[in-house]
Design brief:
The chain is α+β, with helices and mostly antiparallel strands and 300 residues long. It has nine helices and 13 strands. The N and C termini lie far apart (59 Å).
Length: 300
């Protein structure tokens, strides 16, 4: 079986009453496909997300996908590649990219037309219901509305991110990426190494390190390098930032970088300052740069 590319639409919510959900799914006439036991190992992908899914009795496959964070039904593009040697593949990817998190779940699968209904029990997280419309067509909007009503999925129960993101402490993930970048900083003149990482709405994390130059003004800050990687990858927004320095516990961005970050983030975008494994000092772009110069000023 070769690789395959596909598109689906997903919606995820906390499941507060599993018995009621099971009854509702049965009333819809969905076909019970039984229980799947899955283990998803996530790697630090530069573009989108990358995981190795191992499923009891069904082998393994590498899944590369891109999906933006949203509580609304969101389109996901993905590529599936069969994994002949999952253990060896996992070791190779961990060595070259690094492992971010492992998600283990017990999934009860129901099929309803072209819709997969997942009733998930996720280790360390709890119970969720996930709706996945495979190759959505003109019926998708109606299907989602029907399922949300039938399964009593309220707005308050909707979940914007994936299980991996829920398991991960967002600050720690970004701090680890920033720390890794900081170790490769080129700072022979100041000996002050800095690393920065930004997270895009797609979930991808982009990092950068400061790069000095003997002509001092020609140096580049870590935040600028991280944003350069973000733009090079085709993304134009950030949802979170982390900055790590070798010699100080909390290293705030310089004034210029505060303006750079404000260009791509929102006032409430969190900025984590610290080191991996410790409690960071978290602020926002608005707090770092009150009265930021914005596009509105250009239109004045």
């Amino acid at each position: 079986m070769g690789r395959s590319e596909a598109v689906n639409t997903e919606l995820k919510a906390v499941d507060p009453d599993r018995e009621a959900t099971l009854s509702a799914v049965a009333a819809l006439g969905a076909t019970d496909q039984g229980v799947l036991r899955q283990r998803d190992t996530y790697f630090a992908a530069r573009h989108g997300r990358l995981k190795l899914r191992e499923q009891d009795g069904a082998g393994a496959e590498l899944v590369a996908y891109s999906r933006r964070d949203s509580v609304q039904a969101t389109e996901s593009e993905y590529l599936l590649v069969p994994a002949i040697d999952p253990v060896g593949l996992s070791q190779a990817l961990a060595r070259s990219l690094g492992t971010t998190v492992v998600v283990t779940k017990r999934r009860r699968l129901f099929l309803w037309d072209n819709v997969r209904i997942h009733l998930d029990d996720v280790d360390d997280l709890g119970q969720f219901v996930e709706i996945e419309i495979v190759e959505p067509d003109a019926r998708a909007r109606t299907q989602l509305a029907t399922l949300r009503e039938a399964l009593a999925i309220s707005d308050a129960s909707l979940v914007a991110v994936g299980y991996a993101d829920l398991l991960l402490d967002g600050a720690q993930t970004l701090l680890r990426a920033a720390d890794s970048a900081m170790r490769n900083a080129y700072a022979p003149y100041s000996s002050f190494k800095v690393g920065a990482a930004v997270r895009a709405p797609s979930g991808a994390i982009y990092s950068g390190a400061n790069v000095e130059n003997v002509a001092f003004p020609q140096g580049a800050c870590a935040e600028a390098a991280a944003l350069g990687a973000l733009i090079t990858a085709g993304e134009t927004a950030i949802t979170a930032v982390a900055v790590v320095a070798e010699k100080v516990e909390h290293c705030p961005p310089c004034g210029g970088c505060r303006q750079r970050l404000a260009e791509f983030g929102a006032p409430a975008t969190p900025v984590h300052l610290g080191r991996p494994g410790s409690e960071p000092q978290t602020t926002t772009l608005a707090a770092l740069l009150p009265g930021a110069f914005s596009r509105e000023e250009l239109d004045a």
